[in-house]
């Protein structure tokens, strides 16, 4: 099974969350998925009450093989298996000893424009590279268009724009206008509601630190951004998290349902073996994704004259092929 926003296959049986009119255009394609729709679709596949919201972990204790989780709301949970999917600031990753995510030196803002009567954009991804910034736009469906803008802030142009939606919007529009971006791109930004315009620093886990990191320890492991926080330059962050879920489920299933070794093995030993296999499979994939995303973003957004020349005259095709190669990945079946 392959989960990807960029690539030739996107296998997911909830077709209502994808834009059906974004069909294949050659061997590779890009699909735009609204994250809230995807999360809702996944939640609906689970029994009621499976997911508990507002349950941030603040501390982890050990009691034999069990892990005692202290939550922000004062609740205490006892876990037989702990899978940390708690984001870039993961408490579970910190407990495992993974390196703290580093700053890429860039910021990103993104938004969603709504066209009640339909927009004029073709079902394809457009990207623009300016002096020290990148911008892109892709339609989600017949009425919604997603856009992003990444830049390297300076003392001169920061001025708190990332803390104020109105300032952020005007900052983006000013940058785009100065670079002679097509008017339809400007209209997308102008149409975005203030509550849809977000800005955040881009962080990543140093890829070399993942080579020897403890992705799993005993009955604990990490997945998603807790494992491989990366810059969004490949569009693979959410896709990689879905890959993690498939591989993790398969490894735990094989460990628990497989034949018992001579003398048998306790469930705890089987779980630990399954998590170790998951960590082995996902380690290099995570290193490759994080490293490639960082390099692609750095080269595409660089304002250095030499790098800009190489990018515009030689590296553009290389980066595109690398991007598509990273997306064209099959994580296997459940």
TrEMBL record:
Keyword annotations of the record: Monooxygenase, Oxidoreductase
SUPFAM superfamilies: FAD/NAD(P)-binding domain (SSF51905)
Domain called FAD-binding: residue spans: 39-261
Record-level Gene Ontology MF annotations: FAD binding; monooxygenase activity
Keyword Oxidoreductase applies: yes
Pfam families listed in its UniProt record: FAD_binding_3
PANTHER family given in the database record: FAD/NAD(P)-BINDING OXIDOREDUCTASE FAMILY PROTEIN, OS03G0153100 PROTEIN
Similarity annotation: Belongs to the 3-hydroxybenzoate 6-hydroxylase family.
Protein name as annotated: FAD-binding domain-containing protein
